[in-house]
Every structure is written in structure tokens, then in C-alpha cells.
# Entry
Amino acid sequence: MVQVRTYTIPPTKLMPNSPHLLIHYPKLLLSEVSAKDFNPTTIYDLFASNGWQSQWIARYGRTQLSHYHSAAHECMAVISGNGATLRFGVADTTSDEEEHTHGHGYEDGAIEVQASLGDVFILPAGVAHKTYAPRPDAETLKFHESKEDDGTLIKDTRKARKFFEGIAIEGEFMMMGAYPVGNEWDFRVGGDHEGRYREVWRVPKPKRDPVLGQSKDGLVGIWKESPNTNSSSKL
# Structure
């Protein structure tokens, strides 16, 4: 039976977050990513079979800016490493990395989750997130993005699959990110959509969960068809 954890992430002064629930499947892909012959194409193929396109693999550094994606829902799968802390729902309020990571330089109301190998997270568009304190420790982010030489997303599936096939998995904390086909992610920080949160909340619900497909145990059953974006809220 699939273990499912969900979190309600309400809007803050600086972050839109979402009426949809944040979904976490602990260790759902552990057997796949623990295999001796594991290659990222295993996860690429799984996501693709459910209408989600893998777009990057990241080896995480010690911290990053809290951010969100305004035009796409995101799936992140932990494919390597011993773990990291993921903070959801709040904006950083200072540029000082130590303060916004280990101090008090972020909004109140954060939800922190310890990510482990094989975990899968599904983030609704607008949900703030940052990854820090990876295990084993790594100084800086190393980002592998599936793009052409001109900076556009690789659309040819065979070429994209070959891109992921060539990425080495060497034990650092790494996640693989995917989005519904036709969606591309952007990088937004606190305050970018002030007064315009509904624009983010209107991103259409995907037809399938990236891992569980049409099962009601996943996104299809957990997310309502369309969030209420017509309330009188000024957010």
C-alpha cells in the first residue's frame, strides 16, 4: 500500500502557495533508485508514461533561495544520497544565506520535511520550497538541465532520454524534476505575484499522477478539480 502524506500550504504575505495539497510519497521509488544498475532513465520513463516530462537533475549544495513555480506543478524524486531538509511555504526575508537557512531570516509558518532516498514530492504551482543541508554535504549546486544549445527545452523524447542516461549518479543528494508535458518551470521568489495569486492558482490540474497514474490514491484523487480562485480575498 502506498504511504501518502499531505500538507496544507496557505498563502503568506509573500508567497502564493496553493489551495491544492502538497503531496509526499515516502520511499515510493526506493527499490528503483537503490538498484545496482540504476540509471535516471528508469524514472524518466515512469514519469513519461504518465504524461510528465523530466527536465532536470540537481546535485544540491548547502542551501538555495526559497522559490516557487508560477506556471507549472512540479514533481521531485530523490534519486541519490542520504537525505536533506526541504522547507515549504515561506519566503526568505534576507539575502544572508546563513540567516535564511539556519537562522530566522524567513517568514513564519514554514513546514520542514526530511527527504530520504526514494521519496517523491508533488508541489502545486505556487508552493514555496527550498532544499538545504544535503547529506552527504556538498558546497554548491550542480544543475543538469535538459536543454538545447539555444537554451530551449529538449522536446525530442529520444534525445531527452539520452541526456538523462548520461548523467552520473555518484551518491550525493540528488533529485530529478518533472512537469506535466507542455509546461516549463520558472523561478519566482517572494513578492513576485503580490496581488496576483489567482494567476498561479489557475494552473490546470494534471490528468495523471507522475507515479501513480490515474489511481485515486494519488494526485487524481487528492486534488480537487479546480481550486476556488473566485473568493473575495485580496491575496
